[in-house]
Amino acid sequence: MSSYLIKVTWGRWQTDPKWLQSGDIQAAALFDLRFSNNKLSIWKIDDTQSNLDRVIAALSVINKKKTIDNLDYVIITPEEIQTLGLKTEKSPGSTLDTDANKDWHYDIIELSISKIVAIAKCIKSHTIHRKSEPAVHNLVRLSLKNKFIDINDADENLKKQLEALLRKNPE
Amino acid sequence: MSTVPLLIDWDLSRSKPAPFSFEWLILPSAKSTDIKIEPKIQQLSSSTIGAVGNTPFSLLTGTSTEQLPITDYLTKQITDLYNLANDGLFEDEQIREFWEALSALLLTFGDAAIEGIAPYIIGEKASAESASETLKCLSHQETLVAYDYRIWIMERALQSPSSWIRDAAALALESMDDRTAIPYIQEALSKESNESLRQYLQTVIGYLSRKR
C-alpha cells in the first residue's frame, strides 16, 4: 500500500533542549509543517518504494535552495492519514522533475491547528530517515542521467551545482 | 582607491588555550602541530567593505565603517548577523541572505571570521537553527579560505550540548570530504547518547574512511 513522505529537518524534532518538557515537541518543528492556503505538501510513495529515490532527488533540486545536500524525511501511512482525519488531494509539485510533480505530489488539505499538531505528534512517533549528501548527489546524478530533471530548468545557482555534480565522480 | 590596514589574523598557536571561556571548548593538542597558520596582515579596500556592508543582513547604515577598528567592525557584523538569524531562518530567501552575508565575511576576513563566529556556534550564542545553518554554509564554500579553521569549528561543534548542532557538525564534516576529521568524529561517537545520531556518525566515519 502506498505511503506518504514528509520532508523534515532532523534537529527540529529532537527533545534534548533542557527547557522542553518530556513528550513535548520543539516549536521549531512547525517549520517542517509550513502550510500554504491550509495545505501541506506531501509525496506519495508506492508500496514497493520504487519511486522513493526519485522523489528524494526531486526534492533536493529546487530552485532558490542554496545547496544540494542531505534530505531527512518520515514516511506516514494512509491508515495514519485516515486516523488523524486528514484529507489529501493530488496537486502539482514544484520541483524540477515534472513527471514526479504530476504523478506523486499531494497536499494534505483543510488543515486546522489541531490537525497540524496531530501531524506533528504523528511525525514525532516515527523514525526520521536520512539520505546523506553523497547519497543525494548520486540520486540527483541518476535523475539527470535519466532526464527526469532538465538542468536547463534550474536557476543559475542550482545549475552551477548540478554541473559540478556531473563533473564529480559518483561515490 | 583608499585602503585601510585592518586585520592581523589570529595565530592559533598563540591563542591556546582557546580565547573563549567555554569549558568544553579545548583545542586538541593535535591541532597545535597540524595547523600551521602564519599571522598575516590583510588590507581591506573601501569597496570591499562596501561589499560586506551591502549584504542584506548588514545593519551598518550610513556610518563610515572604514574608521572602525577592524575587530570592532567584524564583531559588529557578526553580532548583527546572528541577532537577525536568531529570530529565525525559515524561508529560502532568509537562508540565502544569511549565507551571502556569512560568505562575504568569510571571504573578506578569512580565519578571523571563524574566530568571530566561534562563540556563536560552539558557545551557544546562536540558536541551534542558526548554528546549524552556519555549519552547513561553511561546509559548502567553493574556496580554501579559512579551510583549517572551518574544519576546526566543525570538529568543536561535534561536542555541542545540542544534538541539532552536533548533527549539523557531522553533516558539515561529511560534506567537507576530509578524512582528517575521522578521529574527532570517532571521539564524538564514543560520547554520543542519541542513538540515531550515533548511527549517522558511524555512516560518516565509513564514508570518510573510503576517501583517499
Structural class of chain B: mainly alpha
Largest sheet properties of chain A: 6 strands, antiparallel
Overall pLDDT confidence of chain B: 75
Q: Tell me the fraction of residues in β-strands of chain B, as a range.
A: 5-15%
Q: Helical region count of chain A?
A: 6
Number of domains of chain A: 1
CA radius of gyration of chain B is 17 Å
Shape of chain B: globular
Residue stretches of chain B low in confidence (pLDDT < 50, at least 5 long) are: 1-69
Strand arrangement within the widest β-sheet of chain A reads 4-5-2-1-3-6
Assign an overall shape of chain A: globular
Integer average pLDDT of chain A: 94
Strand order of the largest sheet of chain B: 1-2
| Total number of distinct structural domains of chain B | 1
Can you characterise this structure?
The complex is a heterodimer of chains A (171) and B (212). By secondary structure, chain A is an alpha+beta fold. Chain A has helices at residues 52-60, 78-83, 98-104, 113-124, 133-145, 156-167, and strands at 3-8, 40-45, 71-76, 87-90, 105-109, 129-131. Chain A has one domain (3-167). The longest helix of chain A is centred in the C-terminal third of the chain and has 13 residues, at 133-145. In chain B, strands 1-2 form a two-stranded antiparallel ribbon. Chain B starts with a strand and ends with a helix. Chain B has one domain (3-176). In chain B, α2 runs antiparallel to α4 (92-109). Chain B is globular. Chain A binds chain B through residues 10-12, 14, 16-17, 28, 31, 34, 64-67, 69-70, 127-128, 130, 132-134, 171, and chain B through 88, 90, 92-93, 95-96, 99, 128-129, 132, 136-137, 140, 161-165, 167-168, 171, 174-175, 194, 196, 200, 203-204, 207, 210.
Task: Name its key features.
heterodimer, A: 171 residues, alpha+beta, six-stranded antiparallel sheet, globular, B: 212 residues, mainly alpha, two-stranded antiparallel ribbon, disordered N terminus
